[in-house]
């Protein structure tokens, strides 16, 4: 199934289908006034927007090697998303024809065989194949797990003072440096090779500064080809003992030696690895979109749920609350004071309205 915008050009709702006339943004809630569903339930933004958002998130983090400088963008970085095109010959015909499948995303730095083994380990419904529900689901998970308004004060509507803005900027800076990471797929015992290769490249770039611009430009055109041999030449095993086997940090089950697993640099490469289906947020249990994780208190989180362990989130506008005074309901849910009201008529929630 492919998703098309509705006739009016506004994005139709994935949940309501035809009954929503297209996304009509509410003034402060991240929701549609015509159907009430959230913005992410409507067809997501363009790939370009998404890659810019991801680029901004990963820049200034240990994962900045997954971004490239925008040409003439004054230091702006964009996500170097790893698309993968798989070509299979169709055998049932006399003339050789080929079937190509495009994956909107695949783990970085793997050869295609290993990347396909990884895909086979996650449910088919989550395969981000271009034009399918799996690709749409990936985009929805990215928007919901990594909301733009958890990363950039410019995307927030509810920051009320300079002080709140600087509190947020400090928070974002510290999670990028200390908590955020992108999982790496490798065979058990081989985790860390990608990061090592990236570090070597960075060191080389620093030494050989005059060439770095040219290199970035080349990398920018490098979409499509997934198997740029980033790591293969510099693979170093990290000395895990084969005799003891490898256990998944998530389910404690065994990870077969020939089966790709996910490593997280923040958790260390010695002993911590996950089955691809166990690499999930400890709060919502969802698979971590594009393997972007937040590591805190020895647990994996998606961005949304990590941020909520540090700051309350407003149940009205869905933004984090950086001010001292906010409303907490009996069930523990929190609101900006001025958002504790019916989003249709503005009535205070303690006095119920017909909505
Ligand atoms: Zn809807
Ligand atoms: Zn709608
Ligand atoms: Zn597991
Ligand atoms: Zn979560
Ligand atoms: Zn709010
Ligand atoms: Zn109302």
UniProtKB/TrEMBL annotation:
Q: Does the keyword section mention Zinc?
A: yes
Q: Per the database record, which ranges form the LIM zinc-binding domain?
A: 246-312
* Keyword Cytoplasm assigned: yes
Entry superkingdom? Eukaryota
Which InterPro entries does this entry report, sorted A to Z? PET_domain (IPR010442), PET_testin (IPR033724), Pk/Esn/Tes (IPR047120), Znf_LIM (IPR001781)
Annotated localization:
Cytoplasm
Alphabetical keyword list: Cytoplasm, LIM domain, Metal-binding, Repeat, Zinc
Which molecular function terms from Gene Ontology are attached? Answer: zinc ion binding
Q: According to the UniProt entry, which residue ranges have a biased composition of type Low complexity? A: 224-240
- Where are stretches of biased composition, namely Basic and acidic residues? 202-223
- Domain named PET is located at 84-192
* Chain spans, region Disordered: 199-247
What is this protein's name?
A: LIM and cysteine-rich domains 1
* Organism in which the protein naturally occurs: Cyclopterus lumpus
In the UniProt record, the gene name given for this protein reads lmcd1
